[in-house]
């Protein structure tokens, strides 16, 4: 079984890097870091049969809240923001579903961010969540 | 008695950036029509002042994630023009190759993801994917071919980092380019299929007598260099742009409206390029155009999707030819020194003519910059299309009319993010 962890985010937008940080910490799977989380996700997971995507979320929950989604069961919730140059993670998963390109096993973790400001500082609650998610993936 | 009717689209979908449309009708009469660009101004021209001349390709690449090569090429062309430096054949070929990569990526995205859903009655490509999976898969793979080419030549696909004033930081080996040939050959076949797909769509019976403006090169379908010509007799060097065009601000748009001095609106982009230069297309692109029913010119903006597909064929065929003839240049770049000079540069962005002008002081610092993106130049033409299109169609139900008018805007593949980099702020005091 080929396992792949895809960490999404921007390294210079504080907690937006949460997904990248999880990918840095995971020991037991191939990891990939990606900044856009768009169409190319389908190419990234091609050939992997157990895929875990980790991204920062913005849902008005307390910083560090861990959201767990099973996109094979139901679509991810979508927000109001969408890049005009690409589609987001939720839209990419819906496109992949319609094209029959979802991996056989797929999980999505969202880590609620405290700040998307410019910089590399992480909120302490987000650091704790990053470590929790990385351990959960390694122990699964 | 006719009642006034308003159609307002507060947020246009499937365009790059933030824009809106407002239309006020009384019966068949258009009382008011505005193609609004409310994306905030981005001030690129202002913050380029004081930067080193060699920073322009990296800074202006950030104007657009879809067409960074266009910004990099026009800005490099301007600095090279100021320095009176002309690149050698192979460096020019590399610039043309990466530019074709951008056309493949951008046109692939627009044809399948932004424009086709209009013709097939879907809100988005995601909705379209369930019924037309093969078309969407083909679009994704074509876009990827373009991105792969940009990554090899540019270092990465979005905002490439390998473009340098005077050439490149690193040039690829012939073997690296040849490795792309099989996928490009697939792309060429897919582009021909794309043209057939586009030609099979239903098009409104609508043409306008545009002033088409595009670059023309003596020997090839113009992409990265050439003179600026039009079908109204314009034939000028790039540095003459300011003598023949002017920009002005209207209150409903954060992007300047451009016009031909004394004549008014004009049209840039695939339709203009095709109508002025179709005689110079590559053989398979010419055949694809003929098979799609296109004549030597095309004045139906809805058929821009067919022309983009023809340009996809051209771009793939041209890159394959350039790779075949490629010989790795000994030096990746030429020295360029625009100190104390002003330079003008232009190129054919996927959405049309992109003009840059820079003045550089004796220390190599930029003192003045002007960037005129294609969407700014097309704004007037878009508004005139909408005004004309409504005539005879005002009786359509609001939903249908709105759908068709939005489609008419997307004919231009407007890149609103590119267009809003400038705000001229004047404070008057008494």
| CATH level-4 homologous superfamily of chain A | HybD-like
Q: What is the name of the CATH class of chain B?
A: Mainly Alpha
Relative helix content of chain B: 40-55%
The number of helices of chain A is: 4
CATH topology-level fold name of chain B:
Cytochrome-c3 Hydrogenase, chain B
Give the strand content of chain A: 15-25%
Query: Which consecutive residue ranges of chain B, at least 5 long each, have pLDDT under 50?
Result: 421-430
What is the straight-line distance between the termini of chain B?
A: 47 Å
| SS-derived structural category of chain B | alpha+beta
General description of the model:
The complex is a heterodimer of chains A (about 140) and B (about 425). Chain A is α/β, with parallel strands linked by helices. Chain A has helices spanning about 20-25, 40-45, 90-100, 125-140; strands at about 5-10, 30-35, 50-55, 65-70, 105-110. Chain A has a single domain, classed as Rossmann fold (3-Layer(aba) Sandwich), CATH 3.40.50.1450. In chain A, helix 1 (about 20-25) links the parallel strand 1 and strand 2. Chain B has about 425 residues and is of the alpha+beta class. Chain B has one domain: Cytochrome-c3 Hydrogenase, chain B (Orthogonal Bundle), CATH 1.10.645. In chain B, strand 2 and strand 3 (about 30-35) form a beta hairpin. In chain B, helix 5 (about 125-130) packs across helix 6 and helix 13 runs antiparallel to helix 14 (about 400-410). The N and C termini of chain B lie far apart (about 45 Å). Residues about 420-430 of chain B have low confidence and may be disordered.
């Amino acid at each position: 079984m080929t396992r792949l962890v895809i960490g999404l985010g921007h390294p210079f937008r504080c907690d937006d890097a949460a997904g990248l940080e999880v990918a840095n910490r995971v020991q037991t799977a191939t990891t990939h870091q990606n900044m856009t989380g768009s169409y190319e996700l389908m190419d990234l997971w091609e050939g992997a049969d157990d895929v875990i995507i980790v991204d920062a979320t913005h849902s008005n929950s307390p910083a560090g809240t861990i959201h767990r989604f099973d996109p094979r069961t139901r679509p991810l919730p979508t927000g109001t923001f969408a890049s005009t140059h690409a589609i987001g993670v939720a839209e990419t998963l819906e496109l992949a579903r319609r094209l029959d390109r979802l991996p056989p096993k797929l999980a999505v973790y969202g880590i609620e961010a405290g700040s998307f400001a410019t910089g590399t500082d992480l909120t302490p609650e987000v650091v704790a969540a990053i470590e929790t998610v990385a351990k959960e993936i390694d122990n699964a | 008695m006719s009642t006034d009717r308003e159609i307002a689209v507060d947020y246009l979908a499937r365009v790059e950036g933030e824009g809106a449309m407002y239309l006020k009708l009384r019966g068949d009469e258009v009382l008011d029509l505005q193609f609004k660009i409310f994306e905030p101004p981005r001030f690129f021209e202002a913050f380029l002042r004081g930067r080193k001349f060699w920073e322009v390709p990296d800074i202006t690449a950030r104007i657009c994630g879809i067409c960074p090569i266009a910004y990099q090429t026009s800005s490099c062309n301007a600095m090279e023009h100021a320095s009176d430096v002309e690149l050698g054949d192979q460096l020019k070929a590399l610039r043309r190759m990466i530019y074709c990569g951008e056309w493949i990526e951008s046109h692939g995205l627009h044809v399948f993801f932004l424009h086709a859903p209009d013709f097939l009655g879907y809100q988005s490509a995601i909705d379209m994917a369930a019924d037309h999976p093969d078309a969407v898969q083909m679009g994704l793979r074509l876009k990827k071919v373009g991105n792969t080419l940009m990554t090899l030549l540019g270092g990465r696909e979005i905002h490439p980092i390998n473009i340098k004033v005077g050439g490149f930081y690193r040039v690829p080996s012939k073997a690296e380019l040849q490795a792309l040939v099989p996928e490009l050959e697939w792309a060429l076949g897919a582009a021909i299929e794309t043209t057939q797909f586009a030609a099979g769509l239903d098009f409104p019976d609508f043409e306008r007598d545009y002033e088409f403006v595009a670059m023309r090169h003596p020997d090839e379908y113009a992409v990265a260099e050439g003179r600026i010509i039009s079908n109204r007799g314009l034939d000028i060097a790039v540095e003459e742009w300011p003598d023949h065009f002017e920009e002005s601000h209207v209150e409903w748009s954060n992007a300047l409206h451009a016009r031909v001095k004394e004549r008014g609106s004009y049209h840039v982009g695939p339709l203009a390029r095709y109508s002025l230069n179709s005689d110079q297309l590559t053989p398979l692109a010419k055949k694809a155009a003929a098979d799609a029913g296109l004549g030597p010119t095309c004045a139906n903006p809805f058929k821009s999707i067919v022309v983009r597909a023809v340009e996809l064929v051209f771009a793939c065929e041209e890159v394959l030819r350039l790779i075949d003839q490629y010989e790795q240049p000994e030096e990746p770049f030429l020295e360029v020194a625009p100190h104390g000079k002003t330079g003008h540069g232009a190129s054919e962005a996927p959405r049309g003519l992109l003009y840059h002008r820079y003045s550089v002081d004796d220390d190599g610092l930029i003192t003045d910059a002007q960037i005129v993106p294609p969407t700014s130049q097309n704004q007037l033409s878009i508004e005139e299309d909408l005004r004309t299109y409504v005539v005879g169609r005002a009786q359509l139900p609001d939903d249908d009319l709105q759908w068709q008018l939005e489609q008419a805007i997307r004919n231009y593949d407007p890149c609103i993010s590119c267009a809003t980099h400038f705000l001229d702020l004047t404070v008057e005091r008494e």
